[in-house]
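Moderator note: this is an archived Q&A kept for reference. The question asked for a predicted structure of one protein chain; the sequence and the answer are reproduced below.
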Amino acid sequence: MNKRLLKLLVAGLLGLPGWAGAMDVVEVYQKALLNDPQYREAVNTYLADREAKPQGVAGLLPKVELRAALDRVSQEKEIDSQSTSSEVDFTRKDYDVRLTQPLFDAEKLALYDRGKRKALQAELTLETARQDLRLRVVKAFFDALYAEDTLNTYRAQQKATYDFMDQARKSFKIGTVTASDVYDAQARYELVSAKVLQAEVDLEVQRKALWVLAGEPVDTLSPLRKSIKLQPPVPGELQGWLDQAARSNLDVQVQSYEVDIASAEVDYNKAGHYPKLEFTASLDLNDQSATMSSFSEEGPGQNTNESYVGLQATVPLFEGGYVMSRVREAKYAMLASSDKLDAVRKDSVESARESFINTTVGARKMDVFRAAVSSSRDSLRASKLGYGVGVRSAVDVLNAQEQLSQALREQAKNFYDTLSYSLKLKAAVGALRDEDLMQLRGYTKHAH
């Protein structure tokens, strides 16, 4: 598929310019619409599948054919009773224009019905691919942001540990602390330094994943404001979401069309038993050149014009059981599609249930994590003060620093997970739109 058509699709979807500098989730999504191979494949598949509708319509329209023939004829004739013979050489041109219009053809009617449903299914399949791309972009974007947050918390812990280690060394020189304090700080510093190195690798991996989606390097991301008050799903009743998922989930709708297409396939194969009736009209023009006899005499040329108008009926009688076998095959295929529809519907309901519960619990946990971070900061300050007056050990301070770092990481993870589940919940009920990504853009720290 050419880039120009893809750009037109993107413009129709979002119609917004990207931001300069740090990329936000919308800009990554815009670039992914153009560059993601999986989505480009889905677009080309859609463009191919939607041709099923005009192909089905074509079978119901008149068919016009032109046939032309040019023959050089050499003919020799002997008549025994008259003891005579003749030879003829001539050129013959034949033109035949034939029009055929189906009046009753159950096979072509079934093909038309199948093509119409396949084209509608193609629209939904493309939207399913677009929804999947939104979720993949959000996941990759959030994974990269969480990797950045993790690296920042480890670096902050590394710096705090280094400062404490430096202070412990100075205090040891003047004899106010023991050597074990220095060793504890040194060991903790080495451990957190290793975690910093691993976090840097993890961040690079996540940026590469975004690169694959966006089609170009993504070095700087626009972070989200974690002060946002995350809300549980609205409406707050689980059953309503489950019912909507069973009806409106895009995969459910696509598979429902698959059942309809299988049903049309049954009708198509059944039509092999039915008669066909066609209106036919033709015009035959025959132009024959002058002839030459054996006595080299020139004979007259000949032009013939013939036209026909009529009805043509075709009645199938016996094909060795082939049609009946095809009907049975199509019926079993339709039953298999119905069974798959039940499975897809159950999966969509369970996806909605999981996303609803995690979104609800995640929103509630955000307040808990904010309190945990605040308490961890208070604990760190108290540990430092206690260490200064001799009532807390170096291990207490180092543990408090690690506890704060862990609380910040868990808070960030819950924040991204809750947002992800809220989007997955919308996807489960077929309601995830580009506007939801625009809302995420509004959560960025530098949003207009």
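Archived answer notes: The first strand starts at residue 63 and ends at 79.
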